[in-house]
Amino acid sequence: MKLTQAEWQIMNALWEKHPATARDIMTRLPQGVKWAYTTVKTMLSRLVEKEAVSEHKQANTSIYEPLVSQRKARLSAFRLLLDQSFNGAMGPLMHFLLQEQKLNDKQKKELIEILGNESEKAGEIK
Amino acid sequence: MKLTQAEWQIMNALWEKHPATARDIMTRLPQGVKWAYTTVKTMLSRLVEKEAVSEHKQANTSIYEPLVSQRKARLSAFRLLLDQSFNGAMGPLMHFLLQEQKLNDKQKKELIEILGNESEKAGEIK
DNA sequence: TGGCATCTTCGACATATGTAGTAGAATACT
DNA sequence: AGTATTCTACTACATATGTCGAAGATGCCA
């Protein structure tokens, strides 16, 4: 389930609060994103077609709900980035993150802690 | 500098070895990606237009080189993913990674080590 | 009940992306 | 030199994406 950038905007708004109407969603778009009502509707229709969102009518008005969880969506976006930009492996990404100082000290310490607790369970480098 | 998926394929091959001719690049594409020679050329032209790649002739044959570093490209791809799918913050991503067990034991330990060293250098570790 | 406010459904359109085929110029092989 | 190979420069085209506008159906308030 690959979402386009515009679709992510819609989904983000929908995950934030749902069920929701097209208008609800429109008002929850990031400030800066100023789409016409019909643009939102178009995106929603496409998402319904893709079965990423469900739609049901409540007296002439459509009520939408996510069918794809944010987790699933994030997983596929993440995997895509990994494959396309980091040789499909976590190693290069980790390296990159540290090199680029994407983590501040607090985050690093936090991460170390979480990692420490988790490191007994084996993971998967998919 | 946003690259499309197809463009990433080309760039990956180019970063791997450059300068390179279109044919060099073609042979370095991942097995599975079977593009016609002209497709590779088209992608290269577009990348040259975007100034992501430079081109110069050596007796009727074009020699290409990356103008955008892999690091820069990764940075913008990463930032895009973060903004679009993780509320633009590292926190949610870190959480996601741990939750999804994207790291195996070895990687976690490795990460802890690197983090440890980095943190000390930053003079922040408890 | 007459309208205005809202929705919905369709269609439209420009640009972006993925993928190639053609034809003619340059180069290389025999 | 003649021919086969390889390049380049263009053009083409289908699908994907981003953004609406128009017109008609419905709902709500004075």
Question: Can you offer a commentary on this structure?
Answer:
Two copies of one chain form a homodimer. With 126 residues, the first copy, chain A, is mainly alpha-helical. The first copy, chain A, folds into two domains: 5-66, Arc Repressor Mutant, subunit A (Orthogonal Bundle); 90-120. Helices cover 57% and strands 10% of the residues of chain A. Chain A contains six helices and two strands. Chain A has helices at 5-16, 22-28, 37-49, 70-85, 90-99, 105-118; strands at 53-58, 61-66. A two-stranded antiparallel sheet of chain A has the order 1-2. In chain A, α2 (22-28) packs across α3. Chain A starts with a helix and ends in an 8-residue tail after the last helix. Chain A binds chain B through residues 5, 8, 71, 73-75, 77-78, 80-81, 84-86, 90-91, 94, 96, 98-100, 102-103, 105, 107-112, 114-116, 118-126, and chain B through 5, 8, 71, 73-75, 77-78, 80-81, 84-86, 90-91, 94, 96, 98-105, 107-112, 114-116, 118-119, 122, 124-126. Chain A binds a DNA duplex (30 and 30 nucleotides) through α1 and α3.
